[in-house]
Amino acid sequence: MQNSFNIKYKLLLGYLVIGGFLLGAVYRCDQLQTGTDRPIARVENSFLYSSELSKAIEGYSTPQDSAIKAQAYISNWARKKLLYELSQINTTATKKQQLESLIDQYRIDLYAQTYKENIISNRLDTLVDLQQMQDFYEQNPVIFRLKEPICQYRYIKVPIENIELNQLRRSIRRFDSLDQVNLDSLSFQFSSFQLNDTLWQPQDNLRKQLAIDDANNFARYLKKSQFFEIQDSLEVYLLFVKDLLEPGATAPYPYVATTIKNIILNQRKLAFLRQFDNEIIQDAIKTKKVEFYQ
Asked: Are 206 and 149 in contact (CB under 8 A)?
């Protein structure tokens, strides 16, 4: 009996897969837009309709792409349905009960989470006062201890034959207001550059920009307020390290400002959800929707 059942399903899967291949060879998107929602495939009492298949192959520009997608979708649909049918017969009643319990709980959690996210998006105040951020930073210095070195720097990368190389060296080192204007006006000559040296960035970002493989050696030679010139056969890097902070130092406020805002918002969100969960229970008790028995 069991063997005949398995043979039946194997044959059905074979017919559906073969049908999918034949359908994929001749299918066209315009054939799905007939206005008639007709069945495309069947597994027992489950049907795949043309409307579902049409949505699945939207966005494929050529008939060939649509045919391939349709073929794959039909085969995958049939396979999943067959596996479900087989699982219903070959799963014990106890296991089914456990699975149904998990499915019910997942459904409840999914709806509840979706509802909470909607409430949060509509009610939660996402504006964070700058003074609140500054206060949080000053009151929690341990949180913002650096785990990696960071630095402020400026650099330009230019072809090694650049005729203004000496002037560029002076400008990147001195970097007064006239130098900044001059460098900005010449930036079209640079292969790459960063002239905003007020930004704090991980030291490793700089190493990668300079294409230096030896991280330990790079960190050993990198110093604050120091000019570096690094060149290969084609180009030269002109680099000035404005400032540098080692691991263990407190991160500058601008470097962690976004993190601070996210922490405050997350704390606000958790507090809101605690209050929301409590209010749901209290309101339900008042309206007799919920009762707790001794």
From this structure: no
